[in-house]
Amino acid sequence: MSQSANGKSIRRRAVLGALGAGASASLGGCLRRARSVAGWDSMDPVSLRIKTLPADSDPYALHAARTITSWYRAAGIDAQVVPVSEEELLRQVLLGTDFDAFLVRTASLQRDPDLFYGLLHSQFADARGWQNPFGYTNLDVDEWLETQRRATGDRRREVVAELQWSIARSQPFTVVGFPDEIRAARRENYTNWRSANLRSPQGYLALRRVAGGTTERTSDDDSDEESVLRVVGTDRRATENLNPLSVEYRRSGVLTGLLYDAIGHVTSEGMAPWLAESWAFADSDGNPRATVRLRSGQTWHDGEPVTAGDVAFTYALLADTSLGSSEGQDGETAAETRVPAPRFQGRSGLVDDVRVLDDDVVVFRFGDCSPRVATRAFTVPILPKHVWQERTDPASISGIEVGSATEALVTNNIPPVGSGPLRFVQNTPRESLRLEADESHFLFDGESVGVRQGIGPPEFDRLELQVVGSDDAAVGVVAESGADVTWTPAGADTVPRIGRTAGLGLLVHRSTSPYLVGYNTQTPPLTNPRFRHTLARLVDRSYLSTEVFDGYARPAVSLLEGTEWVPEELRWGGTDPVTPFLGTEGELDVERAREEFRNAGFQYDDGRLVRGT
Prior knowledge:
By secondary structure, this protein is α+β, with helices and mostly antiparallel strands. Helix 5 runs antiparallel to helix 6.
């Protein structure tokens, strides 16, 4: 950003801040007089319930939530931590907005500024899923979000900087930090552990088998040997549900990404074709249009051919899982009665229309965005029309409809029918899952694009997932040669055990899955951005990184921390430049905190923060 542009933005922020403070003071005075005349004076204590995961589901979340709650209480807030199972937490937060605040680790984020569009645009304020779960509305942020979609080059960089400043000031969520992902792996069966990105499906395809490894087993017919990749983790949900559209069952898309193909996938150089053989962009009335050619001869795991019709069907289903069959009442329009999928809306919403040219060619028309942003739509899983078109009816349990949902959203999708490099074999709910390599997949073609990108076919015949009760137990299974790697990341307290166990390798990878505290901005007093801003100043992220994450985490201001998109003045430099901690080394300065809350229009009654005046 140029100096003049940066100076202009800083001046604008100062003016907006002064206007906000003046408006708050004026409004507070008017409200006090109105209450006095009316003869009532509300002095309700401020209370917050932070929902998070129990310790056996996440090595850090509960500890971090309790530490943050201690700072809230020191500031006079009636705060409590409510541990909830991950499935139920995501259901309450993402589907039911039943929360004050929540602390979770997000799924792996695409490192593109357009991730903020689905996360914060006000058009999604009443949507379900990770589409604006905060109920956040901010016209300035909407403007930046829309502008960055169509801007390019330096202009987009300036817009994204302004966008991040607006988010940091208004705090719909507070970024806690990016934890390192810690895993234990055995070396005798597979190599390339340190280079493989186990946060993505392609990471498992980058593993290389060691000839003669102990995981080579005789197959049932004793005619040849099979190699098995054995993984162990704490997340049981993949053994019960393999629906790629279910937000409450998906911490990550690794397993469903091995079962289902997308048109493209993210590489270090940008978006590259995957199920597509190629794509070409052109201009159509000022908006992008892409002609996508699919790889010919690809089949679903049940033997049916993958066609352009499946692609068009997928994007129609993501936009409305009822496929227009929901009947509006009292004059409701079709748009008002749509039942969109609670995942992928930020990406699939880029698409205006998909038209089939022939079995292998499909044309995408996009909304107002640049071609670079448009390619984000290519990363959703492509679904087989002949399986999913029967799942458009309203969801019901024992004949009773369960609200605004369709069968597509509630099915466990077992057995799944995908086109990915692995196919489903067997599951035991809450205990295990077995997948096997599908040799009809294009990766087994030596001339495929995947191979040229350094990704080959899986060098294992089967993948077996075992579920255990804790990350320490998972490390123990690997240490005792019962598995090759911990599938879900382990906590830092397992590092000493991994380090002193012979044959065990410690894998530490930088994560793109941050922890954050999300706020329900539609529930008072969290409707007040100054209140949320002050809440963020009660969180010492440096202290959390050291004391909760044992140094295995990077504090951050923005979800784009570590990318080129964060302006220098917003990068973490030992402290938060926008919401610095109101204290030192984990000790809250209570008087400063009280002063900040008073400036935000609150008062104290016998040490308790209250909403009335």
